[in-house]
């Protein structure tokens, strides 16, 4: 029973990690908190769902969701953040601006869905269960674990082994120095925002499939949990987000299973608060710029 | 629409002004706390519980809510003194979520998701006016005193503030405590105005609307939060399409204002007037 809970938690955590990665990537490169990230997850789920309802096969609907959410993410960057970045007041401004973008996306989704909870048609994803070592694993869980692992691998290859990755890291380290080296920061921002949005979009479809529920407010709890994941893992850290995401998934599943109901959120957010007090750079973080006491 | 509609709209405006000032005072001192929603929740629940369960009279209950807000914010300011910027914002967001989740969890005390119903309506326009008047007086008094100048200095540059002998930690703590007091006070007043409260209304949405009115109105002058709240409260009433798309319009307003009018409506007007006066003087 415990092993089953832990496994379910790891799968849930993989989705948290996938979602939080985009959030932490944008923070790592831009030093801004994108509070519209939850809305991108919701947008991905909506695009995927409506594509499936229109008769498009699931694999293609997932690609559409990723491209769609990625494009929305780029739009948010251009419309809500670009001007702020030039003004140099990005820290406060970006939070406000992205709250605005979040409200816009959520209210459009509310309009489209008429405030209803939507569902994927039955057996959009084949309902198959496997048993081994006494554990019950659904095909969907395997697919989630597989696709998240693949994307994490792809992302870390992109960031650490390609020219694009070197440019991203250069811009993250110091945008001005990057310009001197011939890197165009705006082009890099577009790509990080696209990647971040696409991962949120995939997370959205996966969440929609595994809970079989898609609604306009679905992004908010994930956004709040993304804060926990990125702070636990260290803001801007990719490896940290993965470990913390899986950890949060397990913690949440165990807390729901073994503790009085309703206490889960209290525990998660108390943990977030505590970690910020004790180790603001995250459990695995190293002290870098702009953290803690100046 | 009769006069009554406008009066209740005015009451809502007064309540939201109070909440906005709770958010305003921390930003004024350069503290990036968004915990005001939590103070409002704590004050609101304290008042509702005291009045409905223990039969405490309204003034005493509201005073207790204010005191509780002061104390909670004061205690919260101690660990938060270590953090700055987005880290402070995230920590206070966590605090808001903790308060909301406790509201759901502690059913015996708070009624859980159902909230507390049947709270007597003991607060009217007059009481709200008096309370907001007191808060305004406090704000203007701070603005004109050394404390206001200390807040401005700390917000602009902590190192300079330190070199001038201003204690950053003390200024931040004072801002926190005032914010908590105002939040608790208006949370308590709101409880005695709206008949029923539930945990969800003290969450992310309240936090956003508090921030929105300040960003819209302006963060630098006392009149700013009032103008911002007035616009946000009145806008949906002007036309039906505006009311139907309220969150959409709030969202668009936030993006446009922070990008093109980053100081807010009131502060930008004040800046314009100052510039014109300077030009005339030459």
Could you please describe the fold and organization of this structure?
The complex is a heterodimer of chains A (294) and B (282). By secondary structure, chain A is mostly helical. Chain A has eleven helices and two strands. Chain A has helices spanning 2-30, 37-53, 58-87, 90-113, 139-161, 163-173, 175-180, 185-211, 219-233, 238-258, 264-278, and strands spanning 129-132, 135-138. A two-stranded antiparallel sheet of chain A has the order 1-2. In chain A, helix 1 (2-30) runs antiparallel to helix 10 (238-258), helix 5 packs across helix 6 (163-173) and helix 9 (219-233) packs across helix 10 (238-258). Chain A is globular and about 60 Å long. Chain A starts with a helix and ends in a 16-residue tail after the last helix. Chain B has 282 residues and is mainly alpha-helical. Chain B has one domain (3-202). Chain B contains 14 helices and no strands. Chain B has helices at residues 3-28, 36-54, 58-80, 85-105, 107-110, 125-144, 146-156, 158-163, 168-194, 204-217, 223-238, 240-244, 246-260, 264-281. Classes of the chains: A mainly alpha (294), B mainly alpha (282). Chains A and B meet through helix 3, helix 4, helix 9 and helix 11 of A and helix 4, helix 10 and helix 13 of B.
List its salient traits.
heterodimer; A: 294 residues; mainly alpha; 11 helices; 2 strands; 74% helix; disordered C terminus; B: 282 residues; globular
What coarse outline of chain A follows from CA principal-axis ratios?
A: globular
Number of strands of chain A: 2
Portion in strands of chain A: under 5%
Are there runs of chain B of 5+ residues with pLDDT below 50, and where?
none
Percentage of residues assigned to helices of chain B: over 70%
Q: What is the overall pLDDT average of chain A?
A: 86
């Amino acid at each position: 029973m415990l092993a089953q809970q832990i496994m379910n938690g790891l799968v849930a955590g993989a989705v948290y990690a996938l979602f939080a990665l985009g959030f932490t990537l944008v923070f790592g490169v831009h030093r801004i908190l994108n509070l519209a990230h939850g809305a991108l997850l919701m947008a991905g789920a909506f695009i995927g769902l409506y594509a499936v309802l229109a008769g498009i096969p699931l694999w293609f609907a997932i690609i559409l969701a990723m491209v769609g959410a990625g494009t929305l993410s780029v739009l948010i960057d251009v419309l809500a953040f670009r001007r702020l970045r030039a003004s140099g007041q990005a820290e406060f401004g970006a939070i406000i601006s992205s709250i605005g973008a979040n409200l816009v996306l959520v209210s459009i989704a509310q309009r489209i869905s008429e405030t209803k909870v939507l569902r994927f048609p039955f057996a959009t994803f084949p309902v198959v269960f496997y048993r081994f070592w006494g554990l019950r694993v659904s095909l969907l869980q395997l697919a989630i674990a597989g696709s998240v692992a693949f994307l994490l691998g792809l992302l870390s290859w992109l960031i650490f082994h390609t020219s694009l990755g070197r440019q991203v890291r250069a811009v993250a380290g110091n945008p001005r120095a990057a310009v001197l080296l011939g890197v165009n920061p705006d082009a890099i921002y577009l790509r990080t925002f696209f990647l971040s949005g696409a991962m949120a979009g995939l997370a959205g479809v996966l969440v929609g499939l595994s809970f079989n529920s898609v609604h306009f407010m679905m992004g908010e709890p994930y956004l709040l949990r993304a804060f926990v994941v990125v702070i636990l893992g260290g803001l801007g850290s990719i490896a940290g987000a993965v470990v913390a995401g899986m950890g949060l998934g397990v913690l949440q599943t165990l807390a729901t299973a073994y503790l009085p109901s309703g206490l889960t959120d209290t525990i998660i957010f108390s943990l977030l608060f505590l970690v910020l007090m004790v180790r603001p750079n995250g459990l695995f973080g190293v002290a870098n710029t702009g953290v803690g006491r100046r | 629409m009769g006069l009554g509609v406008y009066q209740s709209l005015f009451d809502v405006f007064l309540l939201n002004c109070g909440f906005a000032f709770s958010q305003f005072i921390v930003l004024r001192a350069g503290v990036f706390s968004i915990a005001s929603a939590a103070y409002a929740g704590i004050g609101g629940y304290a008042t509702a519980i005291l009045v409905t369960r223990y039969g405490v009279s309204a003034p005493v209950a509201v005073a207790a809510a204010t005191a509780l807000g002061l104390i909670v914010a004061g205690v919260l300011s101690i660990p938060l003194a270590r953090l700055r910027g987005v880290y402070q914002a995230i920590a206070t967001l966590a605090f808001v979520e903790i308060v909301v989740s406790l509201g759901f969890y502690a059913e015996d005390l708070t009624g859980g998701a159902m909230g507390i119903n049947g709270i007597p309506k003991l607060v009217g326009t007059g009481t709200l006016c008096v309370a907001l008047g007191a808060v305004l007086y406090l704000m203007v008094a701070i603005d004109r005193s050394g404390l206001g100048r200390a807040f401005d200095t700390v917000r602009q540059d902590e190192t300079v503030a330190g070199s001038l002998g201003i204690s950053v930690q003390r200024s931040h703590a004072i801002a926190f405590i005032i914010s908590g007091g105002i939040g608790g006070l208006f949370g308590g007043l709101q409880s005695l105005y709206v008949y029923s409260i539930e945990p969800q209304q003290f969450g992310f949405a309240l936090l956003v609307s508090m921030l929105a009115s300040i960003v819209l109105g302006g963060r630098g002058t006392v009149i700013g939060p009032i103008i911002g709240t007035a616009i946000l409260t009145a806008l949906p009433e002007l036309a039906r399409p505006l009311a139907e798309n309220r969150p959409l319009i709030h969202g668009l307003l936030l993006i446009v204002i922070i990008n093109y009018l980053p100081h807010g409506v009131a502060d930008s007007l004040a800046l314009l007037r100052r510039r014109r006066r300077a030009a005339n003087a030459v």
